[in-house]
């Protein structure tokens, strides 16, 4: 299957919640909702989610960004992926918590490519353990509101 077959690629408008749910599947959509609700709850009024269209090859993705990227949610056919880019300081913090992460997340982190702007970690969000890992990794990117 071509990457373009995995992504929502109609350029006219961002996908609706119903389109995302239908594309990624009911179970993956529940994880999608957990991540978006988590961000809204623990980072209130920090990010304005923005739909980005990456062309026919990459399709639509939902980015959370303030001055720098926080994370990007990628709806793919029958799955949901999340991209987090870690700069050098953030990578040092991730190394400090890495042993607490699931094996799946550790492997994805170790395999991730480092570009000029950071280490691009792409995670398939398909179980509650990965959701827990994502919450830990996002806390490395930015402290949660109300936590010290």
Assign the structural class, choosing from mainly alpha, mainly beta, alpha/beta, alpha+beta, or little secondary structure.
alpha+beta
Helix fraction, binned, reads 40-55%
Q: pLDDT under 50 segments (min length 5)?
A: none
- Count up the domains: 1
Secondary structure tally: strands? 6
CATH topology group: Aspartate Aminotransferase, domain 1
What's the main sheet like? 6 strands, antiparallel
Helix-strand string: HHHEHEEEHHEEH
Instruction: Examine the secondary-structure arrangement and name the CATH architecture.
Output: Alpha-Beta Complex
- Mean pLDDT score, rounded? 93
From the alpha carbons, calculate the radius of gyration and give it in angstroms: 15 Å
Compact summary:
The protein is an alpha+beta fold and 148 residues long.
Structure, described:
This protein is an alpha+beta fold and 148 residues long. It has one domain: Aspartate Aminotransferase, domain 1, CATH 3.90.1150. The chain contains seven helices and six strands, in the order H-H-H-E-H-E-E-E-H-H-E-E-H. A six-stranded antiparallel sheet has the order 1-2-3-4-6-5. A hairpin with a 2-residue loop joins strand 5 and strand 6 (118-124). The longest helix is centred in the first third of the chain and has 17 residues, at 26-42.
């Amino acid at each position: 299957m071509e990457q373009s077959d995995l992504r929502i690629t109609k350029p006219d408008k961002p996908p609706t919640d119903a389109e995302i749910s239908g594309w990624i599947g009911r179970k993956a959509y529940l994880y999608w909702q957990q991540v978006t609700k988590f961000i809204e709850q623990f980072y209130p009024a920090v990010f304005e989610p923005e739909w980005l269209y990456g062309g026919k090859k990459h399709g639509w993705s939902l980015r959370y960004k303030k001055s720098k990227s926080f994370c990007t949610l990628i709806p793919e056919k029958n799955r949901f992926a999340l991209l987090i880019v870690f700069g050098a300081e953030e990578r040092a913090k991730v190394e400090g918590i890495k042993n607490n992460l699931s094996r799946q997340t550790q492997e994805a982190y170790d395999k991730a490519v480092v570009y000029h702007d950071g280490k691009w970690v792409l995670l398939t969000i398909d179980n509650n353990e990965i959701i827990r890992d994502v919450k830990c990794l996002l806390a490395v990117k930015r402290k949660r509101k109300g936590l010290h």
